[in-house]
Fold each of these.
Amino acid sequence: MQIKQGGIAVGNLNLKKYFLTKNLKKDLPSSIVVFLVALPLCLGIALASGAPLFAGVLTGIIGGIVVGSLSGSQLSVAGPAAGLTVIVLNAITSLGSYETFLLAILLAGIFQVLLGILKAGTIANYFPSAVIEGMLAAIGIILIMKQFPHSVGYDANFEGDERFSQADEHNTFSGIFQALGKINYGAVIIAIVSLLLLIYWPRFKKLAIVPAPLLVVLAGVGLSFLFTGTSLGLQDKQFVHIPIVNSSSEFFALFKSADFGAIGNKQVWITAITIAIVASLETLLSLEAVDKIDPIKRISPTNRELVAQGIGNITSGLLGGLPMTAVIVRSSANVNAGARTKMSAITHGCLLLVALLLIPVLINLIPLSCLAAILLMTGYKLCRISLFKHMWTLGLNQFIPFVVTIVAVVLTDLLIGVGIGMMVGVFYILRTNLRNPYFYQIVKNGDKKVIRIRLAEEVSFLNKAAIQITLTSLPKGADVIIDGSNSRYIDPDVIEIIQNYKHNAYTKGIIVQLHEVKDKYDVPPLKELMYNPN
């Protein structure tokens, strides 16, 4: 389609080509970053799960290509999850064989598809923003603390571990002190050089066409060669160890099939249900978190994500992989690297496949300390000081659940920590709702095609799901007025939904006007409400 001379319309094909080219310039460099982050995590999680190393890489490939293609999320990245390592390790042992465990993964995938069809993903609408923000900050802190030992050459704990109690009989804090006593200065130099490149290289606009993480890897490989034979030399365990495939027959021999003969085993079904529930919760938490840090503020379809994850786990069970989820570490690295669409996740899966088939020897030259530097930067961006200041300005009813979630996640694991944060968050929600009844009203003017949403005097967090569903279902091309003139209190989560909707509505041709909707509302004092006859 061509643009008419003197016209103002842009052809659909030309517009799509423009955005595709523009997005690819962001997505391709981002996919390299995600690939570099995902590779050691896939291997480390497979090792900790008692599964073949190939299974970890295979899961990353399926998560990138299969789930990435089917998912409605533009920035989420799926792969093997650290939160499932204990479940996987125990299941493989109790079920007696890896092939029987693969059947449990396949069944778990079927359960996830059913959950998506039954629209169970809407539960994500009820995660308080303060808890999600706390989870993101906690993951950032965990990345910094867990990657510090790898950055100084102490690799006793597996890559990707997020739990406070480690498999090496240490915890997160004692692991750091243990690392300080076993420093490899060659690894330290590589990590410092890597961090300097990550910080300063992007400032050189003309040179920044080469992604900083790729330069970090090249510098790390070069320095490791330079240190060989000296006191700074790295040990074998301080490098990436991807399985080396020498022929096509050897490659296909790595795949394993599920043992369908164990379909009547009760323990298989219990394991499948456990994996489906835990994987779905982690996926929904990660999806909600990624949408929060998406600079374009898109809203990912949660039910579609459960279906995509289910198909991914079915595929993984059929081919010999591990259970997968949407993973916040990989996803946040994807966002921080500047990705714009799902092409980044899909391409990272393709890169994992290429690395396994064509260049495993080269990949095994990469020091873990330079990859640790990439994760350290990702962690720093997730737990930046400005986030704490922002949460403080929202008031104690937001700041306390935020901090409690951080502490709980750091000292336990992701799901337990978020569960504790949710309980504190719900306490503050109920505390607010005891003082703030809520409703909202929609008035349509059919002649002018204007939709007016008049918010009530008090709008609570419990309105979040209903308001979000209402806004996303509004017709394209409408004018929308959101009127808060009568509102004495609007929950921060609802304000965030309204502002994100206004930010993204132009993509549907919707013009949004906010009338007296403030950025922040103070919770009315209980004393004032007690003496207010209304």
Note: The CA atoms of residues 356 and 452 lie 56 Å apart.
Amino acid sequence: MERAVSISDVMRMRMEGDAAGLCRATWSENHDAALYATAMLGGAVRTPEVVRTLHTCLAREDEPPPGLGWHALASLGRLRVERAVPLLLSTLAESEHNRRQLDEVACEALLAIGGPEVIRGLVDLCERLPSGRGRWTVRVLEALAALRAPEAVTPLLATLWGYPPDLAVRVVRALGAIGDPRAASALLVLAHSPASDTQLRRAAVQALHALPAAAWPSPHRHPAAERLLHTPQRDPDPETARLATVLLARTEEGRAHLWDVLRGAADPSGPGCPPHAVTAVCAHIAAEPGLFAVPDPDEHRALLAHHLREAAAPAVRRAAAGALAALAGAGAAGALVAALDDAHIGDTVADLVAALPEPMLSSELVDLFTRPGGSVARRRGVARVLGLAGRTDAAPVLLSALADDTTPVGVRASAVDALGALRCAAAAPLLVALATHEEQPGTLRAHAVRALGSIGVPDTLPVVLACARSPHQAVRRRAVVALGVFPVPEAARALGEFVTPDAEPDLARAAVRALRDIGGPALPVLVGLAAGADGLPEDVGHRLVEALAARPEVKATRALLGLATAAQDQRDGATYAASGERRLSRSTPAREVASLALVERGSARDLTPLTALLGPDTWSGAHEPAVQALLRIGTEEAYEQVLAFCYGTKHFYAWHVGAIDAVAAARGIRLGP
């Protein structure tokens, strides 16, 4: 037995390139040092002595330190020792029946080594898959999927039918990852069969979707692949239906079937089709209209227009509108404008009209907006189009509708939104009057406040500040958001008043987001709020830290560092929320987010904050990313900080070893001859 050596001794050996010393240290009476030395050998030169030592660690007859075999396997994988493949395969196979829990590390080592022998060994294990259980089965399948081994397709297909559905799903996923067209026929049968459960059908279609596009359609001819996809295209699971739609769209025969789906859904006496399946067809037409182009498109356009008018489900009407706009372009204007009367899909249709390649004339839109007898839904939709399309010449008409108290509230609200989208400064006085008029509907006043924020006339700041204190919730929230467009200290200070432990969570979130939008003038407020970040409702503290992280100033860094390194025993103590309470925790969340934010700032000037994150009382979850940030900085001072931290660690992980290897490599230290 080697005399007891410390972790520091092991680190010193590594930094001196003493591979022989590490080999001896694997027998140390200090179990932690033995484990560390074994892990360190994974970065050594692959000499016979090192390989023999690692094999010995696995075959020791005495009672080795717990975890020694795990690290030995990991090191063999890092060294890519091909001679270790039989040992790794046997370890993986035996893990099904023992408690050493070496299946994961054995798999990772096999994947690191790769090569034909690894593939053959894993394929041989396929014969045992149906009788296997638990993690062992999963590991083998995941390894075959990662290696994308075509040799595994036949044995996997042979095992597929002996599995219950939950395990068959994993086999199907492995076949999908391998991406071999030979699996297509079996996958099609699974996707088509009503005997397959929902997850299995979805996995089969996902695997088919993952096959190379050049190998589609499958050579499965009787029946053809397209016919077998008819059933999954109508599957109760929307994702299965969507993926089957995408596969069908790849071929002319498949696209013809998709049009038949739309025809059947339009016929009340035809076969039933789930609305989400019809929606999937329309959505794919909208996504790839070029695939569905035909010499004579009139029938197809008429079919989409029919669904836009007559479909019972709003989701189908909405998707049909998108498909029609993509397929017909400007030719869809008439049908889309008519659909503005549909209150359920009006916003979607208005967005499509505004984006048409040959937009409607402003005069036509104004006529629709002012025409007597026009529905509220249509007028709202037209107003939205005018705003989105940037029709500033329509501002007088919108202003007139807004000033008329007899105009329906919904139309006035849409006119307000349109004026805000147009950034119409001339509307500011009227919007101010509306926002401050207590007798006007609260929702209308809220729209007016939002429009004032969109326009951003500096003189309207006092009005927005006053609205931020309104007793009406919608007005108050819109005002808080609107303050974010006024980059002045007065707005920032007002927003800070809404970020308190007792604040409404939604209002506090909006205030923090607005402070971030304000930028530099908000920094003093953000710094002042940082100390109480953990006491804020729900995730507001996290958002506050993110707002600080967006600022490059030194003050922001100091505030983040104060949060990240605050000792837990100096706080009010950990409190956890009961059901229905606003606060989730006051112990560590903001501390953790602040730590990770500091890591993202990692540069040579941020060396001190990064080093502070490695202190003894800091959050352990930040240690690895802080070390990685120091390694990226790459100065000698940064390397010394990494080594000092690793020398002082009481519990090491694989990333400690990787960090030391990185420093050694940067200094040109070779571990071994």
Note: The first helix runs from residue 7 to 16.
Amino acid sequence: MCGIFFSLSRHGYVAPTPSTEALLRNRGPDSIGKHEVLIHPQAHATFLSTVLSLRGTNLVKQPLKDVATQSILCWNGEAWKIGTEPVQGNDAQLIFDLLLKSSSGGEGQKEASIERVVDVVSTIRGPFAFVFFDAPKSHLYYGRDCLGRRSLLLKSIANGDFILSSVCDNDTEDQWSELDADGLYVLDLKFGSPQPLEAMHIPSRRRDDDTVGSVHFPLCFPFINKSLPGDLCRRDPRDSQRLLDSLRQSLDLRIQHVREAIDRPNQGDARVAILFSGGLDCTVLTRICHDLLPLTEGVDLLNVAFQNPRIHANLEPGVSPFELCPDRVTGRSSYTELLRVCPGRPWRFVAIDVPYSETTAHRQRVITLMHPHNTEMDLSISFALYFASRGSGFVQQNADVTPELYSTSAHVLLSGLGADELFGGYQRHATAFSRRGHAGLVDELELDFDRLGKRNLGRDDRVISDSGKEVRFPFLDEDVIALALELPVWAKCDFENEHLPDSDDPEQYLEPAKKILRLVAWEVGMKGVAGEKKRAIQFGARTAKMETGKTKGTQVLE
């Protein structure tokens, strides 16, 4: 995981402000590098990268620069696969080599060269944001993966300067925006011009989109399956096994060989931690991790709870506000079930307690990190992610000992984000079904997935990465997504049939939302978790509406 910064100016080299550079260093504490390039008398380019080394046995410093061509790459991503082939070790140099090869060619091959670069980037399976300068052709490529799993902010200044950065300090009046995760962008820097730069946009296109048009960025997953059930709606019992197999493959890529170039952990230390509310999504991931990691390797479960003065103002003496938080209650329950189903591993339940005074002390920093997102709901969610990702709390090995202060050694965090959007976990999905049946449910799921890249993932990346950790989203693996989109809607959730809480049959006992994922949890022995209700992070951790119950989540921060 890296922090990347690029600037292009007609007035001289533009470096990040000291506060922005500090934020970039937080993302990548292992190395920092900078290249300044005079492309022509009117184009001063600055490339800067910080690196958190997570893959491979050697630290690969950035920006990467090719001596022969003078081309440069700033890469903030994880290429889990190139096409169908898994990537072993560090991916940055491999991506750079592929881009250099694809961009080669004569002067008269501009469009062909662009198409080859686009083809290379479209084969990358995993999250990314990047800036690639093809020096021989003076082409600058930049973009984010189609889901927006890595942050990239854009600032266009009135004097014509152009700046890209993973994160910003938000100290100036300049307007930052989140770069759309809707394809790739190309700037032709061959000729100087006093006019504002105009980027060529190469839009993304689903694999089953047969629209005829110019060059595009092909995606590896289809449109959502819109088929509707007939009179008899039967679930295929093999679907939940297919999902389990797909999640295993996704996790296997994301939790093996972590940070081998830097850390030499002691036995029992954790390389991987889970953002752990105890809910269905994160606990299923945790349970599958148990099958993939050596039994001696620890796994940390990061459970955050907040003191909320609006709710906890009149507690009895000695009553902990943190232990009353719904996610703490659910987290401890799921942790107990994990200990029973998966014995022998050094599981650590890390209770991260955040007093209200600490929340207010970090408020401005969190607002800076989540910028340009700026609503009360953004802040509530960002608080939970910010404090959870720091990984500092209390661990209690058993009920007979005093809890001890503990900070996780893990630099990779797993998140269950994406499961609700893919498998119908929100209340609005049930509402859509009640109003318009399966057709309305399909439309709501399609809307949720289509706006993933425009909503919160960039914000979450900025907030979490400030702790020098990388968040990974196994449910947003391209193959898991393809499976979810291909399945008919009644295979994913089951709002049509009556929920029978007293039944011994999981098909009838389990709640309809995310039914397929509940069946996965049931099949791997986590039957208590399989029956858990969905709860939004800001309500489960008690970060919502701390000052007043009248505040709306959509309200813009003052």
Note: The first strand starts at residue 2 and ends at 9.
